[in-house]
């Protein structure tokens, strides 16, 4: 009888450990590269100036780390596999305004990428070769696929822009 109870307790403990590992799997995969792949280069827009970083640049790695923190701190449900679409139109005028007067990132990929995105109750696939991430302006909580002709190309809600903004400002001022 004691062996049976011990076996049942052992089975329950193993089940609890396995379930807790599954929850951490989703949390641990909430980062830029697991959702969108690693960009070939990052273009920084800072108050009308443009700077391109490659994978070999130290600033590239720091921006990727800060983007991962931005994604991890998002307000989305941690149990989802990825970000979800936002019913929001791509505003080319606002994008150009941010590029000239604000701060933004443009992640460029050397090949067409695919991402599976939650849209309502459906899982849809988006193809893209760049992601635009405004860090200032009223769209600063969103991430845009680089094709304005596709509806549902905004993803959100991503916050925590301050560390990225601080890093970019410091990076740009160190060049003066």
Task: Report on this structure.
The protein has 176 residues and is of the alpha+beta class. It has 2 domains: 1-29; 31-173, no CATH class. 39% of the residues lie in helices and 29% in strands. It has helices at 2-28, 32-36, 58-72, 92-101, 162-173; strands spanning 41-46, 49-54, 84-86, 103-119, 122-134, 143-145, 154-156. The protein has a 7-stranded antiparallel β-sheet with strand order 2-1-4-5-6-7-3. A hairpin with a 2-residue loop joins β1 and β2 (49-54). Residues 15-28 have low confidence and may be disordered.
Helix content class: 25-40%
Which blocks of ≥5 consecutive residues have pLDDT under 50? 15-28
- Helix and strand content put the structural class at alpha+beta
- Total DSSP helices: 5
- How would a crystallographer describe the biggest sheet? 7 strands, antiparallel
> How do the helices and strands follow one another from N- to C-terminus?
HHEEHEHEEEEH
- Total domain count: 2
| Global outline | globular
Sheet with most strands: strand arrangement:
2-1-4-5-6-7-3
Mean pLDDT: 75
Cα separation of the termini: 77 Å
Bin the strand percentage: 25-35%
Can you count the beta strands? 7
Radius of gyration over C-alpha positions, nearest whole angstrom: 20 Å
Write the layout of secondary structure elements.
Blueprint: H1 2-28, H2 32-36, E1 41-46, E2 49-54, H3 58-72, E3 84-86, H4 92-101, E4 103-119, E5 122-134, E6 143-145, E7 154-156, H5 162-173
Antiparallel strand pairs: 1-2, 1-4, 3-7, 4-5, 5-6, 6-7
